[in-house]
Specification:
Helix content is about 30%, strand content about 30%. It contains 4 helices and 10 strands. The strands form 2 sheets. An 8-stranded mixed sheet has the order 1-2-3-4-5-8-10-9, with no helix packed on it. It starts with 14 loop residues before the first strand and ends in an 11-residue tail after the last helix.
Length: about 220
């Protein structure tokens, strides 16, 4: 459960909305489900999305993305939940703007204050400092608007508000590997240590009469 702390009180609760023969249920920070209320033997009942990440724009939490729901043709069902000001907590509207992509409107008094969905106050001091630095770099014209947005996206990912893309995770792993031998000296030093360890193991095997086959150059 990540995001504005005052919204955490919604966790563990579920809100229903009935339209035609379908009952929709939204459980904040958990999932969205749909249940067909008919007497048909194959009435549909399934998951339209599981809590995944926030939709963020202009320093504001716009809504919640629920993804990886039940399969739908070649993809998974997903739902975007819009948070709007209301007198009570209730699921007010449901639509399907495109096939297997749903849109829910959730009303709550918890977002009525103009600052209730601001991202900056929910960040740790460390990430707030990073944001301040990005603002300064943009002000000094040392980065472009595109570069600024990229830095903010990385801050939101680090905070857990957005999921890092798979490509980025792969890049991180490859960077870790490349940094292990960033200089020839470091590589030679590591090779020497491994060679010494290998020699010790070979001697140990010889002492116990265990045959060892292998080229030490490998």
């Amino acid at each position: 459960v990540l995001g504005p702390a005052h919204l955490f009180r919604l966790a563990g609760k579920c809100f229903s909305f009935v339209e035609s023969t379908y009952k929709y249920e939204f459980c904040p920070f958990h999932n969205v489900t749909q249940h067909e209320q008919t007497f048909r033997w194959n009435a549909y009942s399934g998951i339209l999305g599981i809590w995944d990440e926030w939709e963020i724009e202009n320093n504001t939490f716009l809504g919640m993305w629920m993804r990886e729901g039940d399969s739908c043709e070649t993809k998974s069902r997903q739902t975007k939940v819009h948070l709007v000001c209301g007198k009570s907590n209730k699921l007010a509207y449901v639509s399907e703007p495109s096939t297997c992509v749903y849109s829910l409107t959730f009303e709550t008094p918890l977002v009525c204050h103009p600052h209730s969905l601001l991202v900056y106050p929910t960040l740790s001091e460390t990430l707030q400092r990073k944001w301040d630095e990005a603002e300064q770099l943009l002000y000094d014209e040392l980065i472009t608007v595109q570069g600024y947005r990229k830095m903010l996206k990385e801050i939101f990912e680090e905070a857990g508000f957005l999921k890092a893309t798979e490509e980025k995770e792969v890049e991180k792993e490859s960077n870790k590997i490349s940094l292990e031998f960033e200089t020839v000296e470091k590589c030679n030093k590591e090779y020497k240590q491994l060679s010494e360890e290998l020699k010790k193991l070979q001697d140990l095997l010889s002492q116990h009469g265990i045959a060892y086959k292998g080229d030490s150059g490998e």
